[in-house]
Write a structure and sequence with these properties.
The protein is α/β, with parallel strands linked by helices and 257 residues long. It is globular and about 50 Å long. The protein has helices spanning 39-43, 62-65, 68-80, 97-104, 172-177, 195-198, 205-214, 231-242; strands at residues 2-7, 21-26, 29-33, 54-56, 88-92, 110-114, 120-124, 127-134, 137-143, 151-157, 160-164, 183-187, 220-223, 247-248, 254-256. It contains 8 helices and 15 strands. Strand 9 (137-143) and strand 10 form a beta hairpin. Helix 7 packs parallel to helix 8.
């Protein structure tokens, strides 16, 4: 699998860059994780949007889903013009219902699955998780602790395991679900000094490192940076928490899982 960072800033981007967006590719499967402000334009620098297999929105804060409306119009236009035959699979949380119901109504662009409605059927590391598929990729959804309901995501494909935290505080469930993953993409929303402000709804960079270490992740890639911070400071604290090398998300950069 290959991961391309389309955006890594939150809750607003730096000039010319984008909020959360990540393209995960495996053979002919192109899975879009998040659709934050500006991420759709970056996506089109890397692939034709008509080749997307699926889209996951982990929760409904604008820096994670604002560009879903760009994608909707692009797909509807491509289908009207005969450039795209199929709709794409869209996975979204239920709450807030006024947002999910509106997006689920875009039936000319998306085949929408409400993650909450998926059964807890498959056991991973002692956890029964909601599961589905997108192309050749197996998806597992793990509840997060945040100011809005949402999900972290475990993705399995080509013999590799990839985990994306979404926005969350540290939980035992995430630690168990992310056990031994090849690449852990984890939010690092602040520095040590921000721990009280972020408590229970976000992770500091050091906490991201500690969580990945507890999960015994093989590699850690941090993301979701406050635009006023130097990512090098976040990197230093994440490295201290993880106890080994850490990478920072860089827009446009590709990472092998």
């Amino acid at each position: 699998m290959q991961l391309t960072v389309l955006g890594c800033w939150a809750p607003y981007p730096r000039p010319g860059e984008a909020c959360s967006g990540y393209l995960l590719q495996s053979n002919t499967t192109n899975l879009l994780l998040e659709a934050g402000n500006g991420s759709f334009a970056e996506l089109t620098r890397h692939i034709e949007y008509t080749s997307l297999s699926g889209q996951i929105i982990t929760h409904f804060h604008p820096d994670h889903y604002a560009d879903i409306y760009c994608l909707r119009h692009a797909i509807e236009g491509a289908r009207r013009e005969g450039r795209m035959n199929s709709k794409i699979s869209l996975f979204i949380p239920r709450d807030p219902v006024e947002i999910s119901s509106k997006i689920a109504g875009y039936t000319q662009a998306f085949n929408t699955t409400i993650i909450d409605d998926l059964p807890d059927v498959e056991e991973i590391n002692g956890l029964k998780l909601k599961t589905s598929v997108a192309g050749a990729l197996k998806l597992y959804f793990i509840p997060i602790t945040h100011s809005l309901p949402g999900y972290a995501v475990l993705v399995k494909g080509q013999g590799k395991n990839f985990f994306y935290s979404g926005d969350t505080g540290a939980t035992d469930m995430i630690k168990k679900a992310a056990r031994d993953v090849d690449l852990f993409l984890c939010e690092a929303s602040g520095l040590d000094k921000d721990a009280d402000y972020l408590k229970s709804i976000h992770l500091t960079a050091r906490q991201a490192g500690e969580l990945a270490k507890a999960a015994k992740a093989r590699r850690l890639l941090i993301t979701h940076f406050w635009p006023e911070y130097d990512p090098r400071e976040l990197l230093d604290q994440a490295r201290s928490g993880f106890g080994q090398e850490v990478e920072t998300a860089v827009q446009g950069k590709k990472y092998t899982v």
